Amino acid sequence: MRHPKLCSLLLLLCCGLFAGALPARELLVVGTSFPQVYERNAAGDFTGLAPAVLRRLAAELGGELRFELYPWARAQRMVEHGEADILVGPYRTAEREARFAFAAEPFYQDRILFYAHVNRREAWDGDYASLTGRRVAVVRGWIYGRQFEDARAHLQPVTVESVSNGLRMLVAGRIDLLASNQRNTQPYLTAPLQQTITELLPLIDVQRGYFAFPRDPGHDRLRESFDRAFFDLVASGQLARLAAPLGVSVP
Predict the structure, then answer these.
(1) CA torsion through residues 242, 248, 249, 251, sign
(2) Which helix (H) or strand (E) element contains residue 43?
(3) Rounded to whole angstroms, how far apart are CA atoms 117 and 178?
(4) Which residues of 123-150 are buried (b: 16+ CB within 10 A; e: fewer)?
(5) 22 to each of 63, 64, 66, how far by Cα in Å?
(6) Which of 105, 112, 92, 85 is nearest to 31 (CA)?
(7) Secondary structure letter of residue 84 according to DSSP
């Protein structure tokens, strides 16, 4: 003979047990390879400042983290369309603010410079008008600061797919200048290339990198939780301590 009340109670208990066993929501973190900020080593582990920060804040974010690498344009589209939860490292611009919900504060900063061949040292005094007729290269999808972006149409720069590609073009004499950030470029400037390529001053700009989230309301709580936890990370000095051994500059 069945006992309806007993069956109902058992069903509720089972539901409660299974509900308690459900895994935390998975948070998909995407970006492209940024030296010291977001990388994957030979063992397949994600390293750099971004994974270190997110792992430190994982409990406050309320989900298990899954890191993935994609071409930069694709990573941006994934977050823009809500197919991923967190974008690593974009610089903040008005155009990007229309596509992403940025964290309240940046987590790293970059020095942006021109690079030139030592035997074809180009004059650079900070005046973009002086670059007329020069073959200036930029990395696809990168932002270089307000002054550079204002001058971009006038410069009509050559687009390269990567920093390494741009450096090879400099060595071959196919371009005169490469606009890049110091953090991404330094790992390539090993001997003998460091004797061949030189940095030019003044700086193009200093850009700050952020975490960004989809703009849909479903991600508002995640972003707000991140901002609260990240504020405490900065105030306690933990961000600076995580960045120091990586050689990453923080704001």
Answers:
(1) negative
(2) none
(3) 10
(4) ebeeebeebeebbbbbbeebbbbeebee
(5) 12, 12, 17
(6) 85
(7) S
Read off the tokens for 192: 């003998």
Beta-ladder partners of 27 = 65
- Between CA 52 and CA 55 the distance in angstroms is 5
Percent of the chain's residues with pLDDT above 90 = 81
Query: Cβ distance 106 to 206 under 8 Å?
Result: no
Tokens 């823009």 identify what position?
80
Contacting residues for 52 by C-beta, under 8 A, at least 6 apart: 242, 246
Average model confidence (pLDDT) for the chain?
A: 90
**Nearest-angstrom CA–CA distance, 87 and 217:** 16
Cα–Cα distance for residue pair 64/61, rounded to 1 Å: 8
Q: What span, in angstroms and rounded, lies between the C-alpha atoms of 249 and 49? A: 10
Domains of the chain: 24-108+208-246 (3.40.190.10), 111-206 (3.40.190.10)
Quickly tell me which residue has 């504020």 as its tokens.
Answer: 231
CA 30 to chain centre: 9
By three-state DSSP, how is residue 216 classified?
Answer: coil
Q: What is the DSSP letter of 34?
A: B
Residue with tokens 């003998």: 192
Query: How far apart are alpha carbons 35 and 104 in whole angstroms?
Result: 23
Q: Using 50, 70 and 90 to split pLDDT, how confident is the model at 24?
A: low
